[in-house]
Write a structure and sequence with these properties.
about 375 residues, about 40% helix, globular, 2 domains, 6-stranded mixed β-sheet, Alpha-Beta Plaits, Ribosomal Protein S5, domain 2, single chain, 11 helices
C-alpha cells in the first residue's frame, strides 16, 4: 500500500525532496456511546482500517491536498495564510482545522506541504474517518516541524479542530482511540480526567464483526449537537440539587433519586442514557477482565436498547441489523456504534457462526431495505504513527 501511494504521489506532484509516510487508524467503540462529552467512560479500540498520508515539505507557504478517495476533486490548493473554514474546501477542512489548532497554540508552521491522502474506512460508516484524518494530520505536523507534543495532545488538538473549526461538538473518544490505540487491546478511558488503561480483548472463540448499514442520515451533525445541548441543560438542572461536575459522576441510584430536577421528559431520557451507559461500560470492562464475554455481550445489547429508546440516535436500518443479530444463535451481543443515525453495528460473534451471520443477515437486510450491507471481521491495531 505504501509503495503504491508513494508512486501515485510522485506521478501527481513530480519534483524532488524527501517523501514521508504515515497512518492513523479508525476506531470502533465496543461500549460507552455518547458518554465521552458527558464526563463518562468509553471503551474503544483502534482498527487496522484507517487513513494513509504521503507528505513532502515545500519551500513556500502553499498547501496542496489530494485524496485518492475523491479523485474527481483533483488537487485542492490553498496556503498557510488561508486556514479558515470554507465549504468549497470540502474534506480539506479537516487537515486545515488541525493546522489552525496547532497555530492557535503557538506552534508555527514555517512552510507548506504537498499531501496525498488515502483512507480505507468507509465514508459515513461511524468508524471515525474524520478523527483518523485529524490525528494523521497531527502526527504529520509533529514529525515534519519537530513539535514537542504528545499523542494525547494530538488527540486534544484534533478534537479542538473538529469542535471549533468544523463545528461538530464531538467528545474526545474518537481522536484518543486513533492516537493511543494498542494492538489487541481496547482503551478504558475516563473522559472526565483522561485517565486510561489498556484492557486485553480476549474473545476466546469469537470475533468482532462490524456491519455497515450503508446509510447515513443527514441530520447526524445537527442532532449530535442537539443531544449534547440537551445533556448540558439536564446537567445544570441536576447541579441545582446535587454536587456534580458531569453526568458521568452519577450512579443509576443517584440519578433516579434526583431525576425530577430535570424538568423535561426528553432531557430526562437523555441524561438517563448518559448515566446508565457509563455504568454499563464500567461493568463491561470488568466482565472482559473476568473473561465473561457473555455478560459483555448482554451489556452491549442493553446499550443498544438505551441508544434506541432513551437517546434516540438509532434508525430503522440499524435496528433491523441489531434485531437480526441479537436473534441469531452464536451472537453474544450487538449494538449501534458511533454517532448514530446510520453507520455501523458492532457484534461479538462466535467463530463457527461468523459465516452464517454474514450470509443470513446480509440476505435478510437486502430484502428488507433494498440494498446490501457490508461486513468487516476486524482486527484491533495500533495507534497513529509513521510507516
Amino acid at each position: 500500500m505504501k509503495e503504491k501511494l508513494i508512486q501515485q504521489f510522485q506521478e501527481l506532484y513530480k519534483g524532488e525532496g524527501e517523501i514521508r509516510s504515515y497512518f492513523a487508524p479508525g476506531r470502533v467503540n465496543l461500549i460507552g456511546e455518547h458518554t465521552d462529552y458527558n464526563g463518562g467512560h468509553v471503551f474503544p479500540c483502534a482498527l487496522t482500517l484507517g487513513t494513509y498520508g504521503i507528505v513532502r515539505s515545500r519551500s513556500d507557504r502553499k498547501l496542496r491536498f489530494y485524496s485518492a478517495n475523491f479523485e474527481r476533486l483533483g488537487v485542492i490548493e490553498t496556503s498557510l495564510d488561508e486556514l479558515v473554514p470554507d465549504p468549497k474546501a470540502n474534506w480539506t477542512n479537516y487537515p486545515k482545522g488541525v493546522m489552525w489548532a496547532f497555530e492557535k497554540r503557538g506552534y508555527k508552521l514555517s512552510h507548506g506541504l504537498d499531501i496525498l491522502i488515502y483512507g480505507n474506512i468507509p465514508n459515513g460508516s461511524g468508524l471515525s474517518s474524520s478523527a483518523s484524518l485529524e490525528v494523521l494530520t497531527g502526527v504529520i505536523l509533529k514529525d515534519t516541524f519537530g513539535f514537542d507534543v504528545s499523542m494525547v495532545d494530538i488527540a486534544l488538538i484534533g478534537q479542538d479542530s473538529e469542535n471549533n473549526f468544523n463545528g461538530c461538538n464531538c467528545g474526545i473518544m474518537d481522536q484518543f482511540a486513533s492516537a493511543m490505540g494498542k494492538k489487541d487491546h481496547a482503551i478504558f478511558l475516563d473522559t472526565n480526567t483522561l485517565h486510561y488503561e489498556y484492557a486485553p480483548v480476549v474473545l476466546k472463540d469469537a470475533k468482532i464483526v462490524i456491519t455497515n448499514s450503508k446509510v447515513k442520515h443527514s441530520l447526524v451533525d445537527s442532532a449530535y449537537n442537539d443531544r449534547r445541548n440537551e445533556c448540558e441543560t439536564a446537567l445544570k438542572e441536576l447541579q441545582a440539587v446535587t454536587k456534580i461536575a458531569s453526568l458521568g459522576e452519577l450512579t443509576e441510584e443517584e440519578y433516579e433519586a434526583h431525576k425530577d430536577a430535570v424538568k423535561d421528559a426528553v432531557r430526562q431520557k437523555r441524561a438517563k442514557h448518559a448515566v446508565y451507559e457509563n455504568q454499563r461500560t464500567i461493568r463491561a470492562v470488568e466482565a472482559l477482565k473476568n473473561q465473561d464475554v457473555e455478560l459483555f455481550g448482554k451489556l452491549m445489547n442493553a446499550s443498544h436498547e438505551s441508544l434506541r429508546y432513551d437517546y434516540e440516535v438509532s434508525c430503522e436500518e440499524i435496528d433491523i441489523l441489531v434485531d437480526l443479530a441479537q436473534a441469531m444463535p452464536g451472537v453474544l451481543g450487538s449494538r449501534i456504534t458511533g454517532g448514530g443515525f446510520g453507520g455501523c453495528t458492532v457484534s461479538i460473534v462466535k467463530n463457527d457462526a461468523v459465516d452464517t451471520f454474514i450470509s443470513e443477515i446480509g440476505k435478510t437486510y437486502q430484502e428488507k431495505v433494498g440494498h446490501e450491507a457490508e461486513f468487516y471481521v476486524v482486527e484491533i491495531g495500533d495507534g497513529a504513527g509513521t510507516i
